Amino acid sequence: MSVSDPLIAVTVEHGVATLCFDRPANGNALSLALVRELADTVATLDHDEAVRCVLLTGSGRFFCVGGDIGAFREAGDSVPVLLKQITAAMHAAVARLARMSKPLVVAVNGPAAGAGLGFAALGDIVLAARSAHFTMAYTGIGLTPDAGTTALLPRLIGLRRTQELALTNRRVSAEEAASIGLVTRVVDDAALMDEAREVARTLAAGPVLAHGAIRRLLLASQPLETQMELEAQEISLAAAGLEGREGISAFLAKRKPTFVEAGPAL
User: Fold this and answer.
1) Per-position DSSP letters for 162-204, written without gaps between them
2) What CA–CA distances, in Å, run from 162 to 108, 143, 152, 154, 246?
3) N- to C-terminal Cα distance for the chain?
4) Quick one: which of 122, 120, 124 has its CA closest to 66?
5) What domains appear along the chain, each with residue ranges and CATH number?
6) Per-position pLDDT tens, the chain of length 266
7) Among the residues of the chain, which ranges form H helices?
């Protein structure tokens, strides 16, 4: 893939804009270039009157594995700055997706981890392939959540479950995700995109002003941007510390991290 190739594939049909994370060789990891492209794309679609619903999915085997850990290592001592840049663009995209008048359908085509789980949780209607699974993942590399997950998950699945998943990184199957309210329902893998498109087209044919009002009302009690600013600060601080550096190094070396020896000191 050249630097000029799009990282977000976009198609518009029947009033539905389909956005697809398009880094399949990297598990659709969220690089700085990708989240900036996503933020720009969503801002454009938000003001496109021909678009009445947005459908978000991933290309290849994964929905989204979260942050680009290789880029974190390459940044070295500049990783806190990189993470602030990434969260700024990513959180702009999340806020726009959450607050636009158009409904958001998410088709989780495969594993979702870290911020990928956050994007999955953001949907108004979330369909998960039977093979999909969900992991918070952050503490596995010594970092803290972003993408609005600490604001969205307690509302969706409750504080107790959020605490468990955030602290332990326990993997949640698609079936469990549906049973606890993380996703709307589970769909056979082969039928996922057809069903997601049908849901999106049905919403696109509905009352867009009412849909927008419903979204605003449901989100009114959610201080999303405030929460995401806290997330951006905390993930940057975590990456600057020894535990964050140890977690990133261990992940890339395919070994178990040793957080106790690394210690929390900056």
Assistant:
1) HHHHHHH---EEHHHHHHHTSSSEEE-GGGHHHHHHHHHHHHH
2) 19, 16, 10, 6, 25
3) 36
4) 120
5) 8-189+216-262 (3.90.226.10)
6) 444 689 999 999 999 999 999 999 999 999 999 999 999 999 999 999 999 999 999 999 999 999 999 999 999 999 999 999 999 999 999 999 999 999 999 999 999 999 999 999 999 999 999 999 999 999 999 999 999 999 999 999 999 999 999 999 999 999 999 999 999 999 999 999 999 999 999 999 998 888 998 898 888 765 788 888 888 988 998 888 888 989 999 999 999 998 766 555 44
7) 32-46, 69-75, 79-99, 115-121, 149-157, 159-168, 174-180, 192-204, 208-219, 224-240, 242-253, 259-262
Which residues, 6+ apart, have CB-to-CB distance to 219 below 8 Å? Answer: 98, 99
- What's the whole-model pTM score? 0.90
Q: Edge-to-edge strands of the sheet including 112-113?
A: 112-113, 133-135, 172-173
